[in-house]
């Protein structure tokens, strides 16, 4: 599979006499505090403190080529003082990964947040990476990327929040009122999906102006139906 759009690449594998490389940098990625879904605790991803995982990195070799490497690390509770650049503005479960030293890859520690059973956010490198439990042979689908998996998880989280909000709104309503509410919500969601796909296309970006335009159009059409 081609290099993931948001995963960091490690610039190791250079000759011993070469100048020291800078810290690995990920391509620009959105701050995870602004993204759905939120980070999970260890129990939620089937881990315990002291467990061992493997994280997939893009490693740059001395001839400039990139290869996929599963790098083993031990999961630990975060230190008492997390480096400022690796802290989260909003409280989220985060843990320390203690990477083992291996050929051309020195021991390393970093703070991570587990996003799913196969995806984590590396706070030090500022990028999303695939992970698996040590000893497993799972490999990501070659036709997908970390970014695409994050998008799918975001949609699932959004659907779950909509469902929870719907349940809250329905609670205490009479059956007839529930039917009217459900119909109105379906109409709103269908209209929103249609408008935003036409405006930005699948996978496009919807800005604030587009949201305001949709709401104005939706209110106008609703008034017309009621007249």
Please summarize what this structure is:
With 227 residues, this protein is α+β, with helices and mostly antiparallel strands.
How does this structure look, described?
By secondary structure, the chain is an alpha+beta fold. Helix content is 31%, strand content 20%. It contains 3 helices and 7 strands. A 6-stranded antiparallel barrel has the order 2-3-4-5-6-7. Strand 5 and strand 6 (119-122) form a beta hairpin. Helix 2 packs across helix 3. The longest helix has 26 residues, at 175-200. It is elongated.
**Radius of gyration, rounded?**
22 Å
Task: Estimate the global geometry from the Cα principal axes.
Answer: elongated
Number of helices: 3
Stretches where pLDDT is under 50 for at least 5 consecutive residues are 1-6, 9-36
- From the N-terminal CA to the C-terminal CA, the straight-line distance is 56 Å
Number of strand elements: 7
Largest sheet: 6 strands, antiparallel, barrel
Report the portion of residues in β strands: 15-25%
Mean pLDDT: 73
Strand order of the largest sheet: 2-3-4-5-6-7
- The sequence of SSEs as H and E is EEEEEEEHHH
């Amino acid at each position: 599979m081609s290099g993931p759009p948001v995963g960091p690449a490690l610039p190791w594998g250079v000759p011993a006499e070469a100048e020291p490389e800078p810290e690995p940098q990920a391509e620009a990625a959105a701050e995870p505090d602004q993204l759905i879904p939120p980070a999970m605790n260890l129990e939620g991803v089937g881990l315990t403190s002291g467990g061992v995982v493997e994280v997939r990195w893009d490693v740059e070799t001395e001839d400039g080529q990139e290869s996929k490497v599963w790098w083993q690390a031990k999961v630990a509770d975060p230190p008492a003082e997390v480096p400022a650049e690796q802290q989260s503005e909003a409280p989220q479960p985060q843990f320390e990964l203690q990477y083992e030293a291996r050929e051309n890859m020195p021991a390393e520690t970093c703070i991570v947040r587990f996003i799913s059973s196969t995806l984590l956010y590396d706070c030090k490198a500022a990028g999303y990476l695939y992970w698996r439990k040590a000893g497993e042979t799972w490999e990501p689908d070659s036709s997908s990327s970390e970014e695409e998996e994050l998008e799918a998880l975001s949609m699932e989280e959004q659907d779950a929040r909509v469902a929870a909000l719907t349940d809250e709104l329905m609670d205490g309503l009479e059956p007839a009122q529930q039917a009217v509410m459900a119909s109105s919500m379906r109409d709103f969601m269908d209209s929103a999906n249609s408008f935003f796909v036409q405006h930005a296309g699948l996978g496009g970006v919807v800005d604030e102006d587009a949201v305001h335009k949709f709401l104005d159009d939706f209110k106008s059409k609703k008034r017309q139906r009621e007249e």
